[in-house]
Every structure is written in C-alpha cells, then in structure tokens.
Amino acid sequence: MGSGLRRIVLAGVFVLLVSSLSFGAGFGFSRWAEETGSLAALAPARPPADLNANFNIFWEAWRVIERDYVDRDKLDRQKMIQGAIKGLVESLGDPHSSYVPREQYQRERLEMSARYEGIGAFVEKDQNNFIVIVAPIEGSPAEKAGLRPGDRILRVNGEDIRQLSLDQAVTKIKGPRGTKVTLTIARDGQPQPFDVEIVRSEVRLQTVNTALVDGYGYVRISVFSEVTNEELVGKLQDLLAKNPKGLILDLRNNPGGLLGATVDVTGQFLKEGVVLYEVDGRGNRRTWQVRPGGVATDLPLVVLVNRGSASGSEVLAGALKDHGRAVLIGEETFGKGSVNTLRELSDGSAVYITIAHWLTPKGNEIEGKGLAPDIPFQPPADAPTPGRNPEQDPAVRRAIAYFETGK
C-alpha cells in the first residue's frame, strides 16, 4: 500500500456505471478499488518448474484444437490465449477477480475525463453470479428510476447478461448522457422481473451532508473519496456549534471508496484503537489504527446501515460497533470485505485480483457475511431515499427514539 491512498478505480470492488470517471487523483476508469496496486506492466515471467509437467496438458489441448477443429477460419490464437487467461482467473471462483483484455482495459484508461456520465449506480457480482445493484448514487438516473440496493440485473436492452463478466455487463449498461438503456430487474418481493428504462445523464458524487433534526445531528456520508474527511470535519464543526444531543451517522447505500479516507473518517468519531485488520493469503496481518484528533469522539452515536452499506462503510460501522462507540440500526450490510488490486500484464491487458481480506477490530470477517445491526429496522416501502429528507425518514426517527428511550 505504501502511501495508504487506495485508488477506488483500479481493483474490482464495485463498478460505477458511468462511461468515464475522474474525481481527483484517486478516481479513474470505471471501477472502485481498495488497493493502489502497480500500474507498471509486470516483467515477463517464466513458468514455475513444478508446473511444466501439468502444463503439457494445456499444449496438448491447444494442438488438438489447431489440428482438428473444423472451422479453420475461426481459429484466433490471440483470442485463445485470452480465453485461457480468463478461465484461469475464473477458476478461482471469486466474483471480485477478473481478467480484462487489452482492448477493453486500454479503452477504460482513455475514458478518463473531468466528468462522468451513465446511470449512476454501484454494482457487484454476487456469489450466485448475478449483477447486483449495491447502491444508486444520490440524484442519479438510477435512483430517479427507482433502482434499489439488492436489485438484480437480468438483461440489458433485452440481452441476457447473466453469463457475462462484470466488465462485459457494465460495458453494455454504461454510456453517454442522453442515451437510453432498458434494464430487466429481479427484485425480492416482486413475483416477476420488470423492465426499467433509464436515460443516462451526468452523475455528480456528493460525499457529506448534514442537518439538525429535533436537536440531533444528522451526518450523511455517501462515499469515501479524497475530499470526504475534509468535508466531514468542516460540516461536523458547524453542526457541533449547534450543540446537538447526539449524532446519527447515515451510511446507508454507501458502497465504500478509499480506505485511507475511511480510516480518517473513523478517527473523527473514535478516539483510539484498531480500525481494521488486513490479512493476506499468507496470513500476514496489517493493523490499521485510528488517527487521533477527531472532532466528534464524545457525543452519543447511532449508525444507520442497510444492504447498500458495503466495503468502507462496513469497515467504519464495524469499528464503531466493536469498540462500543455506536449502536447500529437498520438492515444487515452487504458483506464486501476483500482487498483487490490491479496488475497490468505485459501485453497491455490486466488482472483484477483479490489479495487480502478485512477483519473488524474483534476479528470478525466482513466478506460474504456483512454486519448484523444491533437494532434491526426495515423502513417502509414509501420511505424517502437515504439522505433525501432526514426529517421525515423513519430510520432517522428510529434513531432518535433510541436516543430518547435507550431501546
């Protein structure tokens, strides 16, 4: 990691459904990531000696195809190599790891710009191979069209995408503003899939919003970017000047972002201690500590979470819960607790690969499990979108009731 700054665009955690993305130095391409990774192409590698015998089987199959396949004009060695690498990565059974062919990867690099356009939603491939909405961005076309966390995308413009990789599916969904895309959605509680037509538009990320609700401070963090901690400190100071009786930290539909920003934000609410542990495949453990000097470490605190709370927001909520600093109210969180990085290959293609898992301060795994709320709360179907109208938000009201009654 080195600097601790983790680019949220290079390592296959969540895909932001936009055609181009640039948000300060830490954003780019179409991916949210949790690990800087090396962008330099890896040096050509020799196969390990103990693989030589087994690898002969690969070349046997290669020769059979080249010698015997009937449609000779369809033999494309480059595609065959790409298919072999793709199969190698897919054999891991890890939805967060993927191979990106050179043409697609280079196209994504060229798509960086000062603005971004698309439907404005974070998506992930779940363990059942579905493309799932993690969270729509506030004010985005996806949110306006009514997409919700947990929605599964079955088809794009009538084409079944369930067998596509995450990158391939996203390529079909994203696009320039003013263009339309029709998504076929499966939603829990709905007996049949349904179509949603979305007009792509420019998408703006807002990271921190605050309000005072019945004497309690409401703090909404929608994503962890390079500027989030600075924004948060300023808005917290303004809020604290109004002498709130407690704070409600809203992490619903927050898909994560920069780990460094997440650690900084945790320090605004927690005086000291471990934020998370990072454990790699060899059992090496890195400890991330609170960065002291927070501005809101003493006020009573409630954290709101839901199925769209993922990755960095689970790290923050898990740290506050494990240290007894806050009570979690809402739904079980998404369960995204892996560290992913990008490795560019010598031909210009790339591999996104999981390199570590996160654990909460008490050693609890986040990946595939999520966080259980201390107080379960399911908002009604007609509840406002998180962050839209906190004064009328039933979850905010439930948090205030906890402050007032202790239960």
> What fold name goes in the CATH topology slot of the domain at 208-405?
2-enoyl-CoA Hydratase, Chain A, domain 1
Percentage of β-strand residues: 25-35%
Low-confidence stretches: 1-43, 111-115
Task: Average the pLDDT over all residues and give the rounded result.
Answer: 84
Helix/strand order, N-terminal first: EEHHEHEEHEEHEEEEEHEHEEEHEEEEH
CATH homologous superfamily title of the domain at 208-405: 2-enoyl-CoA Hydratase, Chain A, domain 1
Indicate the CATH architecture of the domain at 208-405: Alpha-Beta Complex
Residues in helix, %: 10-25%
CA distance, first residue to last residue = 41 Å
By DSSP (H or I, 4+ residues per run), the number of helices equals 9
Oligomer: single chain
Q: Quick one: how many beta strands?
A: 20
Q: What is the overall shape? A: globular
CATH domain class name of the domain at 208-405:
Alpha Beta
Largest sheet: 9 strands, antiparallel
| Radius of gyration, taken over Cα atoms and rounded to an integer in Å | 22 Å
The structure class reads: alpha+beta
